[in-house]
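Lay summary. Proteins are chains of building blocks that fold into shapes, and those shapes determine what they do. In this project we predict the shape from the chain. Here is one chain we studied, written as its sequence of building blocks.
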Amino acid sequence: MRKITRVIFFSLILLPLLSIGQKNERIQYKADELFEFREKGKKIRKLTGNVVFAQEGTTMYCDSSLYYVRDNLMEAFGHVKIVDDSTVITSNTLVYDGKRKTAKLRDQVVYTHGEQQLFTDFLDYNTDTEVANYFNGGQLKDSTNTLSSEIGYLYSKEDYSQFRKDVILVAPDYTLKSDTLNYDTNTKVAVTIGRTEITNEDGSVLHAKGGEFRTEEDQSDFVGGNIETEDYYLEGDELFFDDLNQYYKAIGNVKLRAKEDDVILYGDEGFTDKNKEISKVFGHAFMERILDRDTFYVSADTLVSIESEYDSAKRVLAYYNVKLWRYNLQGIADSASYFLSDSTIFMYNDPVIWNLDNQIEGDTITIEISNDQIKTMTLLQNSFLIGIDTINNYNQVKGRTMKASFIDGIINKIDVNGNGEALYYVLDESDPNETTTMGMNRILCSDLTMRFVDEELNNISFYKKPEAKFIPPHELTADMQRLKGFLWRGDTRPTFEEVVYLNVATETTEGSEEPEKQKPIPSIKLDLEGLPDNERKLLKKPKGQKE
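And here is the predicted shape, written in a compact code that computers can read:
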């Protein structure tokens, strides 16, 4: 009798995909051999040899399997393979629930869909929704990238994937790390959420709070982070990363810091173009140059940092509405350039410099800084110096070119070459309670040298046929007391707040009483601790300084 039963079952399973139960709901199967038995009251059918079972459009293969009749559940072992539309999955074991249409594949699982291949040891797959979920680690490869994570979801119908926890995307030229990543398998666009890091093969590193990365184009848009290149750190609220063209852009609260030169550029927008070796910041832009004992600031509509293999060619260009501030030096100009190697500043187009109570102007001004102090200042063409004495008289010197020398940041000597004119007042300081004007000297000569002691004019040497005239106080008229071209511009002398802080009023919104103001950048502050006494006294408010 047992022999007859075995023969009957053997004949039945040779029929193509015998259906048991209701059509399209029960698992269909066939195999070389079938053996039925009971265990704990459950009817179980064991299939061996070329096992094939299917449900609706999904077909599964294995070496052997156990079919639980009442539960409509199949356990498969050895050379397991699922074919579901365009998706193929292989593994060593499988548990398939025909009621829920879920497959649990374990051990050396390989998921293939189009050009994608996923490798993991733990994969759950729904044959109805065609959604695959791996956990405990997996690696997905396509024609462009390799992506690994602890957890992943693959939506084959939508050509879309989600990855979570310790996500690493390896592309030909970079590596991306994130907590969460969504990936479009057609467009190869990855969207990250949360902490994101991209390391380029040349060492450039991007840190962000998430964004979009177009992997085939090597371009990305990120939110809130920084880009680190060989030469710079670039920060901003929004970041754009074009690794193919080596172009990096930031928008909102931009901070661009040079690694080697202690230079930081701030602004509303900025970018670094490594191919052109330039970086640009604009919109409320200013530069912070950190010196040994204090800091030097320059603001302008636009700042451009130019890189070079030669240190002497590295410089920062500032153009339109340039303002500069240092504790003992302030200035304005239409444009300027700052050479980093020797701290030399060139100012162009109507530049004006203020040092203590002196105003200096010329068509072009060059300032040389050495050991954190102004060393020389050279004025080319139409040079004009105005100094205010202790009783607010305007001493004046003009000429074709002028060179001022400084000691410890204090003016020491001025050499005037060509078309020299000088007008300075002689003071009577014999009464300690009152200083009076004794008269005014007016000199014409080709060249002259002015020497200063304790910030005040001490003596003048005139060369090449000087013409001098002393005018007593009672003979002085207003016209006599001004050289041609005189213009005191103290009301345009920039303050620290004007150069460094972004207190720029925004447009007033409807219904508001006054416009909001941007908060100052908190990292910037005037810190002069450690300055020697002779420099600290320079911080007194200069005469003629606007309130």
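What the prediction tells us: The chain has a mean pLDDT of 82.
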